[in-house]
Amino acid sequence: MALSRRGRDALAYVGCETTIVNNGIAMRARMIHELNCTKHPIPYGTRVDHFVMEPNYLHIWPRHQFMLIALPNQDKSFTTTLFSPISIFRKLKTADDVMNFFRQYFPDAVSFIGANEIVETFFSSKPQPLISTKCEPHATHNGDMLLMGDAAHSMAPFYAQGMNSAFEDCLVLFDKLKENNFDFPKAFSAYK
Q: What is the pLDDT of residue 110?
């Protein structure tokens, strides 16, 4: 079980943080990720005192099979991500390949980001897959274990449904716990 600080605060608010934490199974690793997974900051943006694009919006450059998105950061830079089939990434082997691709499909983004930063960032990390998970049933047959949130169902981040879905899971679980007098096996078995 993986709980963020906010998740634990939400459980504390409804009075069941201690019970959930004491009865949960600690999560040791996220097994859906490759073992050599690393995180790299993406240093796109400007080094001046203003945003190069409108700062209060999600910027999206949609194309048929791929898209580029940019999110504003507090330091007036942007975190930019290219979502694309792996076959397109595999074709971009050299700096010229990358820049030709960006100039063809995202010419305005090149002027905001800069050619050197695009090439440097592109080759500093490898593409990572987007993963969607859907598990059924969420509870074991005897009701001693329950999957909820991203462990039970996760989706691509740009669908903007993950957090709402996880909060809904918490509400449904709490209702099932109340209906079953906080008998966890019964509540887990009733949870759907």
A: 87
175-179: long-range contacts, CB 8 A cutoff, minimum separation 24? 177/16
Q: Tell how far CA 138 is from the center of its chain.
A: 21
The residue among 123, 106, 119 whose CA lies nearest residue 69 is 106
Structural tokens at position 30:
């996220």
What distance in Å separates the CA atoms of residue 32 and residue 51, rounded to the nearest whole number? 36
Contact 8, 109 (CB under 8 A): no
Cα distances from 171 to residues 13, 117, 132, 176, in angstroms, run: 12, 44, 22, 9
- Maximal C-alpha separation, the chain: 65
Give all strands (DSSP E) within 73-150, no chain letters. 78-83, 133-134
Closest C-alpha to 117, from 89, 91, 133, 95:
95
Q: What single letter denotes the amino acid at residue 32?
A: I
49-80 tens-digit pLDDT? 444 455 566 778 889 899 998 877 777 677 88
Tokens representing residue 66 in the block = 């791929």
As given in the structure block, the two tokens for residue 167 are 């909060």
Q: Which helix (H) or strand (E) holds 168?
A: helix 162-179
Pairing type for strands 153-154 and 78-83 reads: unpaired
